Amino acid sequence: MGFFIETVFGGLMAGVLYSLVALGFVLIFKASGVFNFAQGAMVLFAALSMARFSEWLPLWLGFENKILGNLLAFAISAAIMLAFAWLVERYVLRHLVNQEGVTLLMATLGITYFLDGFGQTLFGSSVYRIDVGMPKDPVFIFENVFPGGLLVSKEDFYSALVAAALVAVLTLFFQKTGTGRALRAVADDHQAAQSIGIPLNRMWVIVWFVAGITALVAGVIWGSKIGVQFSLTLVALKALPVIIIGGLTSVPGAIIGGLIIGVGEKLSEVYLGPALGGGIEIWFSYVLALFVLLVRPQGLFGEKIIDRV
Which residues pair with 256 in a beta bridge? Predict the structure, then answer.
């Protein structure tokens, strides 16, 4: 029983990180109707910026305080993501209003390859390290409840706490602030929102910036765990089954879908892997997403679309 709970706990912590990446997809789609295929590239670009500036700033400014360097690097990276959001709205979305969904998808594919190439040109193509001070050693908990206790990674635990805190902040932002309510109005009906004076272009910049911040936090966490490398864009592929299961228009769905994928991957790897062979954690989430598509195409929490003719 203790090993089962340990496996589930590890899956939940991985699932929170998947949810964090999936949130970027959901937020942008809800506010602008764009399936942002560039979310993975945004994670990589933000992580590269964080890694390189945390390395450069102490050399440029002549100080050795690692915490201060990380804070300044995070602030600069956030500013870069804000500039990126403005550029995307100004030079891409503004000119593609009311275009077909496939046109917008192709535009985000172009943004993806631009970010990959520009990030390599600007920051280099090596594997970089992000050190934000999270402990790497595992720890045993509940030793009085289970024989030997439960083995938990401190890094995974703190990463999950940071991701959960960001999700909570985003939830409060959308529910309690005027800007958040305006974004929800834009998500429900673009034309109605414009008719009551909500500036659509500004809302798009805000939501792309919020998605950029989630990409930055996800990039810092994943970069701290596995290093900042160009395979980091593949993390976004893990978010695709998450939004299929949870629903492309649902923020709670992205969270719950991430937890389902995280736990499902861990359990399948441990209990089905020995019988079916290695690598099950690679394809399990996609098979589960396919099953959900067959049963409920809009996802568990997505809005059912009814076309009237």
Answer: none
Specify whether the backbone of 150 is left (phi greater than 0), alpha (psi in -120 to 50) or beta.
beta
pLDDT digit string, tens, across residues 41-91: 899 999 999 999 998 998 888 877 888 889 999 999 999 999 999 999 899
Measured between alpha carbons, how far is residue 216 from residues 32, 165, 300 in Å? 20, 14, 27
Alpha-carbon distance of 100 to 243, in angstroms, equals: 21
- Give 3-state DSSP helix, strand, coil % of the chain, rounded to 5: 75, 5, 20
d(CA 66, CA 72): 10
Task: Report percent pLDDT > 90 for the chain.
Answer: 17
Bridge partners (DSSP) of residue 151 are: 140
Question: In this structure, are residues 81 and 209 in contact, taking their beta carbons and an 8 Å threshold?
Answer: yes
Tell me the pLDDT tens digit for each residue of 262-279: 898 888 888 887 777 767
Residues 6+ positions from 288 with CB-CB distance below 8 Å: 241, 245, 260, 261, 264
